[in-house]
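Sample 3 of the quickstart, ligand iron/sulfur cluster:
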Amino acid sequence: MKSIFDNTKFGGFNLKSRIIRSGLWESENESQKNLTSEIFDRYEELAKNNVGLIVTELVSMYSHDRFSDYSHYINYPYFIKEFKELTDTVHDFDTPIFAQIGFINCNVNGKQMMEVNDLTIEDIRTIQSDYVVAAKKVAFAGFDGIQLNIGNNYYLSRVMDPFENQRNDNYGGNTFNRVRMILEIIKLIKQTTDLHVHCKVNLYQDADDSLEICKILAENGADSLQITKFLSPQYFRKGQSNENMLVDFADKVAGEVDIPVVLGGGWSDMDSIQNLLNGTNIEFLSMYRPFVRSHSFLTGWKNEGNGQSECKTCNNCYWKKSSVCLIDFEK
Ligand code: SF4
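Result:
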């Protein structure tokens, strides 16, 4: 029987629990361009309170492509220095930490808002070499792994999407060709760093094709996967945003690949998580909002043997790009 607080292996790491903390907004306002003492305190609280693995908020590949003026970006001049201090803090509590890397809009080689079908081979090589530089910085900063965000609506998710990628060269057409650009990035990262490569990947409209993408990633260098949703208007129009579809899909992927598979989002109470772990092949879950509400709730769950997050999933923190809960339940 699986339990949230099993000591489990995740690639080469020993985790204190099966819960992965996903990051979204780290800083809170314009005055917090650097990693502030509040952010260091947050990571310390997370690391010492039974989270299995920490994934940072998005570190944008390009400074033009941030969610806000105060989001992290890889070319920030103090990235390595500040994040090395942060990863050292987390490592003091024997907790691994991955940097989440990605981008949304493709502006490369002097061109703006490039569509997938319009990328030249030179553009593809530029993006790939930018990933190598990013991975080297992530490694120098002391991270244990890199989360390639190639899910949701991030640009590389669009490269793998059969509806968006209509290329007729080696980077389009069949499933393997659509994943090729990412596989080459993974290979380059592995050649130049020791980072664990964790891929956050979509369940697209075509579940069979999505499963094939996961298998190709798993067989060609990815060390672990996180399953997430494809947030396109078509997806919602077809009514396919059902959480059960995501669970079924993650269950299927976990049964077919030999690397750890994480199911993302929406879980907030210990009983349902226990039931999910024991009713499926899924071994790891990622959570975001419950950690915004409290950095230490997992310790309470562990001590009491049950529990439910106080987060009411109102999404105010998400929409306001806040890293702290905006709801005062005492009022
Ligand atoms: S603002 Fe809402 S969604 Fe965010 S942590 Fe608080 S209760 Fe949860």
